[in-house]
Here is the input.
Amino acid sequence: MVDRRAGAVAVRAAEIARASGVTLAEDLSLWTLAGGRPSVEAVAGEPDELGRLLESSHDERQRQVRGAHYTGPELARALTERALEGHAEPTVCDPACGGGALLLAAGRALAARGEDRAEVVRRLRGVDIDPLAVATTEAALWLWAGARPPCGHLLVADALTDPPDWPPIDVVVGNPPFLGQLARRTTRAEAYTARLRARFGDAVRAYTDTAGLFLLAGCALARAGGTVSMVQPQSVAAARDAAGVRAVVAASARVRDLWVPEGRPFRAAVQVCVVTLDVGGPPAPANGWGAHLARAMGAPPVELGDGPTVHVEGPVGAAFRAEYYGTVPHVREQEDLPAGRPLLTSGLVDLGRSAWGERPARVGGARWERPVVDEAALEGRAADWARRTNGPKLVMATQSRVVEAAPDIDGHFLPGVPLVVAWPSPERLWLVAAVLCSPPVTAWIAARCAGTGLSAHALRLSAGLVREVPLPPDADAWREGTVALETGDLDGFAAAMTAAYGCEDSVAAWWRERCGSAWSPRGPAG
Here is the structure.
């Protein structure tokens, strides 16, 4: 059967072969898929072009459904060079090889050491579910090495459910399909999910991205002492539904390195990182990935101690969908409902104060200048939330670059979804606000939720995480920082609260840079 996508790839392969003097056999898989070997003129080029042509053969919808994205040469080179460190004459495998970009990069890195290309290509292996991808990889490697990859080293298969029967591999690399389970078009079928669970067990959760499962497949392919290095969504570092993946990996491997490529290395709609694992050795902690990612994104490591936490100051909670959908129909502009209760959103919470009435908010897809809620019209859980939050409290933004918390001294704000709310005693509202807004706490939280926000540097705050925040051991510096926050002295606040936790001044400098436009004199909460 002729693959309609194969034609352009076959033509380019034939052109490059003629120009470079490489003889590609008549039984090349790519010719078969294209319906025959094309007759072409010699046109010079690089084998990498075949992978780019393969990706371009998919329209945007196909790319999303397949989760397939071409790995650019810069990312491929950086990833493979890291993965190959410490390995002499290794075997290298890509369990989702696509057009062969990573295998080509690995081959070039090994050839740069002085190894013969024909010998190197004998140690490269690849798997892909797409026959054209495997055929493209075969042609690209053949063009690069001037020698045919050995039979059985490039397989058409699903490496997740039908792993190849190869001897253990030294280095496993990959840019696997990104198939998040929130979008309908990339949701796994029940039968396929059952097969994955039969192999990977509880690591396969309802919303586990397929890319994370390739880390597990990579660890299974690698030998003890081997290396696995793969592109992953940043959410793998801390997301709840990737916890099973992290736990299984921790039983057989340790995180050596986690780094973030600059910009967007390909057209995936998610923020990515590269996870490098050393396979073998004793079990490793499963909860340290977020710290690796946070450091890769510039966050300083901090230790806040193991003393009392925010939980001892009072309850912490948040509203959810029911409260949101129960509130939205009753939002009005204040000029239309003067007696309405002011509605606070994440975008209206700043460091130590609210910005309600100073800038617009978006609620229910609409723009509001001074949003209020007709509290008397609320029912059910929305009404319960309004009653519960009617009084002094502390409100915290989510999806912000630094933790932003504002005391609601008078208690008149209605916290919207997804604000987090804390109820310390009224006389300690500012003290707890100083804790949560402090530079060390932003760094501490970044290490625990890195990669789970809507943007690369957003902190996805939760009530559970807020409860666990340790309180400062230096009470005098804590009080000094509290006064500075209350009076809008952010320089004094940052310095005092960093000292309250015994952290270095560099933590405050990092936090100030991260604040961006939030760094300006502030008054008390409205």
